Amino acid sequence: MKRKRIGVLTAGGDTPALNATIYGIVEEANRRDTEVLGLIRGYASLMGEQVPTILLNPLLSTIPELDPCVGGTILGSSRTYVAPDSPEMGRVTENLKRLELDGLICVGGDGTINGMQPLADVTPCVLAPKTIDNDLGLNYADEPNDWRRLNGEETAELQPSRRSIRLEDIVNYATPGFATAVFVVAHSIDRIRTTAESHRRVAIVEVMGRKSGYIALGSAYAQPDIILVPEVPLNLDQLEQEVRRLYEIQHHAVIVVGEGVRLPDGTDLGAAEKSFDPAGNIRFDGAGDALATMLQDRMQDGIFERIRFGEPAKSSFFTRKIGHTQRGGRPVQFDRYYGSQLGGKAVELVAAGDSNQVAMLQYSSKNGFETSSLSANRLRDPWGNIHARTLHPTMYDSERMHLSDFGRAYLQPIFTNAIGWDDVEFTRAETFSPGNLTNRFQSVNVDVAKRIRQL
Ligand code: F6P
Question: Which candidate, 56, 59, 144, 49, places its Cα nearest to that of 107?
Answer without folding.
Answer: 56
